[in-house]
Amino acid sequence: MTEGNYSFASQPQAVRSSKFREPQIAANGPMAINIMWDKRIVRGNTYAAQVLPAAAMQSERTRSPKSGRQPNFSSGRHRGQRLGTNQSELVEEPVVESLLEEITDRPIEIDTISTDKVRHDRPPSPIFVPQPRGVDMETQVEDSDLFDFDVEVEPIVQTIVGSTLEKSLAEVIEEIDLEEEFEAREVFELVRISERLECERVEQNDVRKRAERVRRQVQHVKHEADAKESVKNSSASTFAHSYVGDVVSDVFENLHSAGFFFDPLIREIEETFLPWLEEGVHSSILMAHDNERAVDIVVANTVGLQQTRKNEAAAQYAAILAAIQQVEDDRIREEARLLEEAEAAAAVAADEAAQAAAQAEADAAAAEGEAGAEGAVEGEGDAA
Questions:
Q1: What angle do CA 115, 121, 125 make, to 5 degrees?
Q2: Residue 90, beta-bridge partner list
Q3: In CA terms, which of 105, 140, 214, 336 is 20 to 30 Å from 150?
């Protein structure tokens, strides 16, 4: 173990306040970082030929030999500025407006340089070792001093027994609920079977009525066919009898049948009575059909009304049961409220009785004190 306080020291270092690297200095000035700063780079479109006007080229040729020096494009003099040594000499800048061209095919670009500081790894932190304080001591601990099995196990046993009883009670309640559910299901099945049997009975009755109606229609058609057949047979027998009868009677009959000889009564019967009778029979048949259809509609409405009344009775019965349950719940709540009010009134009466008893005891004590004080005053008067 290390004794004494621990201290750490390092070599002193200069604080660098610069955030970026120092620029490199070239031999003839700052080194260009961006290529567009270089004077040897020509900016602009190099595909187009730079053509100077003839007058500008001629003036440039005539001015260069006389001056004896190259034109200085980077000087800060303006056109018309005179030199400091020779006031008579006028220095003019070359005309370069026709040589310049604005760059419009790309946006302006700005280059920046960034760098990170040189950072060193942080040395590992030394392990902190606190300085020892005090004196270590020891003591004797018996088996039953810190832990008692019976005392520690009792709440666990109570919890286990309680959870077991709770689960058992829940299982019993669940079995009772299942039994009630089975009973309700059996009752529902009985009601459903009875309703299904009633529906089947009504359907069978309807089918039987429909079959009877179809049978009656077939019977009516058969009866009409038999009547037509009997009429045809009778007409055939009459024709045969007339054919083999007397010629005169046959001629008269033919004339009579052709309309030359006719009985007004028979003609009236054939032209008036028989069509009226046929129309009446037809209307009677139609009326019978309409009556049968009306009877079917009435029967269907009666069945529907019976089912509706049955549903309404079931709904009313359920509403009555709900109302009875609501009344029972209200009665229970009212009894509970009255019981609570009675208990509260009894408690208030008991508090008032206790306060009255305490007030009476206080009044009696005050009266006894006043009586004692009066007796003392009278004794002092007698002594005086």
A1: 145
A2: 82
A3: 140
Amino acid present at 321: L
Backbone phi, psi, residue 82, to 5°: -95, 155
Q: Within a 10 A sphere around the Cβ of 62, how many other Cβ atoms?
A: 9
C-alpha to C-alpha distance for 181 and 34, rounded to whole angstroms: 91
Helix (H, G, I), strand (E, B) or coil at 326: helix
With beta carbons less than 8 A apart as the criterion, state whether 128 and 71 touch: no
Predicted structure pTM score: 0.21
101 within 8 A of 44, measured Cβ to Cβ: yes
Task: Tell me the CA distances in angstroms from 296 to 202, 215, 233, 287, 304, one per residue in order.
Answer: 12, 16, 39, 14, 12
CB 50 within 8 Å of CB 57: no
- Diameter of the chain by CA atoms? 188
**What is the per-residue pLDDT across 209-251, written as a single tens digit (0 to 9) for each?**
999 999 999 999 999 999 889 888 888 877 777 666 666 677 7
Work out the burial of residue 307: count CB atoms within 10 Å of its CB; fewer than 13 is exposed, 13-18 middle, 19 or more buried: middle
What are the distances in angstroms from CA 197 to CA 185, 189, 191, 194? Answer: 18, 12, 10, 5
Residues in the chain, total: 384
- If DSSP codes are grouped into helix, strand and coil, which group holds residue 30? strand
| Residue 160: partners with Cβ closer than 8 Å, 6 or more residues away | none
Per-residue pLDDT tens over the stretch 281-293: 888 899 988 888 8
If you search the block for the tokens 């709900």, which residue do you land on?
322
Q: How far apart are CA 303 and CA 249, in angstroms?
A: 67
In this predicted structure, the answer to whether residue 87 has a pLDDT above a threshold of 50 is no
Q: Which residue has the tokens 């200085």?
A: 72
**Dihedral (Cα; 68, 74, 76, 79), 10-degree rounding:** 60
| Radius of gyration in angstroms for the set of CA atoms belonging to the chain, rounded to a whole number | 68
Structure tokens belonging to residue 214: 């179809």
